[in-house]
Amino acid sequence: MPASDVYGDGPEFYFADVFAFVTDYLAITLRRPLDGTSATWCPRWWEHPEAGARLSALWLAWEHLRHDSGLGMTTWWLQHADPHLRVLMDPRQGPFAACSPSKGHTQTPFEPLPVDPYDPS
Fold first, then answer.
1. For a surface tag, which of 16, 103, 106, 119 has the fewest beta carbons within 10 Å of its beta carbon?
2. Residues facing residue 28 across a β-bridge
């Protein structure tokens, strides 16, 4: 989703959308041993709803906090990036657990959470 769809004519964004943010910033900046035991990643991250939501949140927080010349980026790393990346890259419980950087994306690796319909009566 383009930034203008999210914020209208608000402050100008550095990255046009979450795809540009992941491709042109995160993928270049993050360096991890993606061995499937300590961390993993899916090259088709956008196919995972949780990953898309978390990475969009990271992008929007980055866009907001980059304007804080004091503690903005430290806050972003410690309060946003580190916790989200720990979950995203967790090779056992994260959304990419069935995927791998070398073998690629596994289509629908996990079922959605079971939810019973709400009945107010």
1. 119
2. none
The band of 54, judged by pLDDT with boundaries at 50, 70 and 90, is very high
C-beta of residue 68 within 8 angstroms of C-beta of residue 75: yes
Asked if residue 59 is part of any domain, the answer here is yes
Alpha carbons 2 and 73: distance in angstroms, whole number: 22
Burial letters 25-41, b for 16+ CB under 10 A, else e: ebeeeeeeebebeebbb
pLDDT tens across 3-40, in order?
555 556 667 999 999 999 999 999 999 999 998 889 99
Q: Which residues does 46 contact at the CB level (< 8 Å), separation at least 6?
A: 19, 52
Structural domain includes residue 105: no
Does residue 106 form part of some domain?
no
C-beta of residue 72 within 8 angstroms of C-beta of residue 66: yes
2, pLDDT greater than 70: no
Q: For the chain, what is the domain count?
A: 1
Q: Is residue 57 domain-resident? A: yes
> Which residues constitute the domain of residue 43?
3-88
